[in-house]
What does this fold into?
Amino acid sequence: MTVAADPVLISRSRARRGIRWQAISDHAILIAGSLLMILPVLAAFLTIGASDVEISRHGLQVSDGAHLVENFDKALFTRGGFTGAITGSTMLLNSFILGIGFAVGKIIFGMMAAYAIVYFRLRFATFAFWVIFTTLLLPLEVRILPTYEVVHGMGLINTYTGLILPLVASATATFFFRQFFLSIPEELVEAARMDGAGPVKFFFDILVPLSRTMIAAIFIIMFVYGWNQYLWPTLITTDEAMFTLVRGIKQIYQSIDGGSDIPEFGRALALAFIAILPPVLVVVIFQSWFVKGLVESDK
Amino acid sequence: MKRASFNQLGLPVWLLLPQLVIIGVFFYWPAAFALRSSFYLEDPFGFGSTFVGLDNYNGLLASAQYVKVAVFTLGFTFLVTFFSLSIALVLAVKADKVIRGTRTYRTLLMWVYAVAPPVAGFLGVMVFYQGNGPMTEFLAWFGYEFRLGVNYYDTAAAMVAVATWNHIPVNFIFFLSGLQSIPQSVKEAAMIDNRSGTGRFWDITFPLLAPTAFFLLIINITYALFDTFGMIDALVKGEPGNNPMTLVYKVYVDGFRGNDLGGSSAQSVILMVLVLVLTVFQFRVMDRRIHYT
It folds into this structure.
């Protein structure tokens, strides 16, 4: 296409003045939107450098940073909570265990089940498909109490298994991998079989390498989802040593309202920062995979 | 299933087994348990339970508080869906249109996706803090005293604001990728036919985006219903009191604080039916969407 034939350029050169105003207003709207997203978080984090007294007196503020190290130190290393058994770094570790454990569990179980459904002649494949995909319909939130009773009955309260497995019990990853496997040309299986590759070899030598981008995308989405879980961890972890960051923050903002002492604003804000940072970094750094995975998985 | 496939029985069964066991234990069993308990009245001291038929459901529908919570949930869902969809649409259209900076804007507008709802709720508490939160001070400037956690409607407004803020990014990502997948040739043809930007948007872009919007509508309703739990818990600081709450929050309050297993299970079942209806509706719309894309 030549430049002259491009109608966008033609119209722009014809009405340069008008377009320019248009462009300025477009950017203004986008900048306003970006500020709307950034300002609340930025205001909170600029405040971390202030002392609790200053924060309780003036609210969110641009601090001079005098108490920055102190607040982060308190957030990460001072024992807190009712029993005094938990530090921010333990919560950080628990959050990573939940996020990574959840993502890995989803991917492994999902890939296995999707492989069985797509690539094998099974009499009950359709039945298995429906049994698995019905779970897409009901989020954990609507069946929390009975799930809690079941997990409690199994003695899995305050264990990583009890924390992670019930969250894994849905078919999102299976569904996603099924869609992806169906889009892989059939000739690949035929060729592999002709070369004498069995199902296990085909899976590891052909399917897994082909799915690499998809696995990465799913991992990012699931990691963020697992990291940000709140309701289920709130119910299932009563032992403070098992708290995740997102769960543990509750303890702190509850203390903001009660008590006659000055609440630990600085510590709470520093913990919020630590809770936000890892998932945001993952999403921003692996943006293109993340967007691709998100948009494609829901088709 | 593919035409060319492996003929084995043992392996696929072993492949499916872990997934099926987890789903059976942590999905079907609890779901069946909820259905069963919704017809029983649990003894508060743990001495067994008695079959009460539909009493738990009737009790709920007759309860003024449940109806109030349901009405709030409806309004909350509507407002969050409306605001986050429309703001995201405007931003996506502009981000798609600008010649420079699309990627930067995309990053700036999507990262909030990764902020957990309860953490967003905590930030909301700070921003709307009674007396010295920035938004509280801003509103006080106009002579309005905003009292989070005290005034029912103020708290509700803060909930809508935080939930909308938290959910704009997902809508934005989907709208932007929907816009970017519209073929250049279509855009150029529209450019020749119609010089007015607004006219072009409503005649060409919007109909092409409609399937995405339909899909997002369901996603947003599900989000407002279920994923806002942590945000609400943060904003009311774990003390529901007279504050507004959603249906899911009430399931939690009645089940875990009030120890009303039957009533809470009945609420769970009502929510399950609600989600099923939504999903069936979604599948019908999605089926139709294939015809005009």
Notes: Chain B touches chain A through 105 residues (CB under 8 Å).
